[in-house]
Specification:
CATH architecture: 2-Layer Sandwich
Distance between the termini: 35 Å
Strand order of the largest sheet: 5-4-1-2-3-6
Number of helices: 9
Number of domains: 1
CATH class: Alpha Beta
Strand content: 15-25%
CATH topology: Nucleotidyltransferase, domain 5
Order of helices and strands: EEHHHEHHEHEHHEH
Helix content: 40-55%
Number of strands: 6
Shape: globular
Structural class: alpha/beta
């Protein structure tokens, strides 16, 4: 029986960003072990402890005083390493302003953060992956434990839905520290946030080469959802029912 794991990380949760994304990467557990070694080889080559995409972009933290060429080099090497592995990249995103507006107008009793909303959408996407890719087995979902997730939301994702083909689904919240899988998800989430910022300016800037590289190899492996309009309202209605069922 195949055993899969998805690791998720978020981007945009600080106040300066208008969008929040939760992005994840799914691989078989044996594939994660292979990627972990090659990823760490790259990290060690550049003499850093952990890759953090926003720090690399801004030349801060461990990337302080790095040249743009050097930062582009590590980005390219890590993206290429992801593309060497059989993986599925998933994400969910939402505009904070639209979410707050819809909740205020139609769901005033619903208390949910943008991060929690995206977390629940990623969970729903994960339950559908066996149907999309005709796979079966077990799946472990790992979310970053540093974010504040209320117990009510956690209870909504404990029991797998009856329609999923996964034989078992487990969910865990853990501190990411220096774990390679969270660094992979962090890179993915950061690229999505930068792409959205570009789109909001009318796409005046070219698509980043790193995102082109990440998306260009196997575009069919991306399972994505930007929650907006009627889709957002329908998903909030479903969440409300789930909250009512798990007081």
């Amino acid at each position: 029986m195949a055993c899969y794991s998805i690791y998720f990380d978020e981007s945009g949760t600080d106040r300066s960003n208008g969008y929040v994304y939760v992005a994840g990467c799914m691989m078989e557990k044996g594939e994660w072990l292979v990627l972990d070694k090659s990823w760490q080889d790259i990290i060690n080559k550049f003499e850093i402890k952990r890759f953090r995409a926003s720090d690399c972009e801004a030349a801060k933290g461990e990337f302080n005083d790095w040249s743009r060429d050097c930062r582009n080099e590590i980005f390219t090497l890590l993206v290429d390493e992801i593309n060497r592995h059989d993986c599925v990249l998933t994400w969910a995103g939402v505009a904070k302003e639209e979410l707050n507006s819809v909740i205020a107008q139609q769901f005033p009793q619903l208390d949910i953060s943008p991060y929690e909303l995206c977390l629940l959408k990623c969970y729903e996407i994960a339950t559908l992956l066996p149907h999309i890719y005709n796979i079966a087995g077990t799946i472990d979902l790992y979310f970053e434990g540093g974010q504040d997730v209320r117990q009510q939301v956690r209870r909504m994702i404990i029991s797998p839905p009856h329609h999923s083909r996964w034989s078992t689904i487990t969910v865990a919240f853990q501190r990411k520290e220096n774990h390679t899988p969270y660094q992979v998800a962090d890179l993915h989430a950061w690229e999505l946030l930068k792409y959205t910022k570009n789109s909001l300016t009318g796409g005046q800037m070219p698509i980043r080469a790193s995102l082109q590289r990440l998306a260009g190899y196997k575009p069919e492996r991306f399972i994505t959802k930007l929650l907006k309009g009627n889709d957002l309202k329908l998903f909030l209605e479903m969440i409300k029912k789930g909250v009512d069922a798990h007081p």
